[in-house]
Amino acid sequence: xxxxxxxxxxxxxxxxxxxxxxxxxxxxxxxxxxxxxxxxxxxxxxxxxxxxxxxxxxxxxxxxxxxxxxxxxxxxxxxxxxxxxxxxxxxxxxxxxxxxxxxxxxxxxxxxxxxxxxxxxxxxxxxxxxxxxxxxxxxxxxxxxxxxxxxxxxxxxxxxxxxxxxxxxxxxxxxxxxxxxxxxxxxxxxxxxxxxxxxxxxxxxxxxxxxxxxxxxxxxxxxxxxxxxxxxxxxxxxxxxxxxxxxxxxxxxxxxxxxxxxxxxxxxxxxxxxxxxxxxxxxxxxxxxxxxxxxxxxxxxxxxxxxxxxxxxxxxxxxxxxxxxxxxxxxxxxxxxxxxxxxxxxxxxxxxxxxxxxxxxxx
Length: 363
Ligand code: ATP
Ligand code: MG
Fold this sequence. Notes:
Layout: H1 2-5, E1 8-15, H2 19-36, E2 41-45, H3 50-56, H4 62-69, E3 73-78, H5 94-103, E4 108-114, H6 127-130, E5 134-140, E6 152-155, E7 161-164, H7 171-186, E8 191-196, H8 202-215, E9 222-227, H9 228-237, E10 244-247, H10 249-263, E11 270-274, E12 281-284, H11 301-313, H12 318-333, E13 336-337, E14 347-348, H13 351-362
Parallel strand pairs: 1-2, 1-3, 3-12, 5-10, 8-9, 8-10, 13-14
Antiparallel strand pairs: 4-5, 4-11, 6-7, 11-12
Helix pairs in contact: 2-11, 2-12, 2-13, 7-8, 9-10, 11-12, 12-13
C-alpha cells in the first residue's frame, strides 16, 4: 500500500500565456496515468511570473517558493508575455524562474532531444540522420563562466578597454553534476559523453579528471570524452552516437539549443532543472506563446512529456512516465496533430482534444 497511501505532492505553476491551457491538459493526463498505476497526486497551485506580478507585484512570491520547497516536485508551464515586456529587467516575469532555480538549488539542467519517427520530416536535417535520435543533455546550470569571479570591465597594460569573465569549476561542483549524469545514463542506454575543451582549458582538465574519477562508481556506464567543437559537429553529423551528454554551463547552453533543432519543433521538448535531492522543476522548453494564448490551439505534448520526466526523475514513478510517453507516441502514430505540427494527411486537433485523446490512451 506504500504507493497508494502516499500521495505525491506536486507544486503546480501554470504561469502565463498558454501555460494554464497546457497545464490543465497535462494534469488530466497525469492523474489518469497515475490511477492506472496506483499512484496518487496532491496538486497545490501557486502563482509565478506575470500572473504573480499582477496579483502580488512580485514574480516569485514567498508563498510560492514555500509551496515548492514543501513539495516532492514542481511542474511549471511557461512564464512571461508582451504585457510585462516594458518592466525593468529585475522586475520581469523571468526573474521568477531564476529565483525558483536558485531557491531550490537546481544545479542540473536536463534537456532531452528526442525525434519521434512520426515527426522526423519536420527536422531541417535528413530523416536518416535524425530518425530515432534520443539524447539527454545534462548541463551544469549554476557555475562556470556565467557566474565565475572576477568578471567585469577594465583596462589592459596598453590602456585599451577590456571585458573579462572567469570560467571556474570546483571539484565538488563537477562531481555532483557528473553523478546526476551517470545516474541518468544508468536509466537509459548506459552511455555518457563528457564534453569539454581540456586541450586548451585548465577548468576542462579538472572537469575531465573528476568525471573519470566519478566513473569508477558507475562501472556499468560506458564513458567517452569529446571536445566541444567536435561535439557541436557530431551532433549534426551523427546525433545517434549520443545517449547522455554531460557538460558545463556555457557549452551546455549552446549544445542544448543546437540539439533542440534536431527535432524541428518546439512543442515537443520537455526539460528539468534538478538538485539531486529536494524537488526539481519540470517545464517545457518552449515559452508562453502569447500570440496563441487563450485559443485552445497550443500543443500540450511538451508539457505532458515534462510531467513524464517529473515522474521518472523526482517521483520515482517510471511506469507512469512510460505510460505518458507511450501515449504521446501513440497519439502521433494515429495522426493527431495540433496546429504547430499539422501537415496534409494528418488530423488537426485542438489543445483540449489532444488532452482527451491522451486521457483515453493512458487509462
Ligand atoms: P520565451 O522567451 O519565453 O522562451 P520565445 O520568445 O522563445 O519565448 P515561445 O513562447 O517559445 O517564444 O514561442 C515561439 C513561437 O513558437 C511562437 O510563435 C509560439 O506561438 C510557438 N509555440 C511555442 N510553444 C508552442 C506550443 N506549445 N504549441 C504551439 N506553438 C507554440
Ligand atoms: Mg525562448
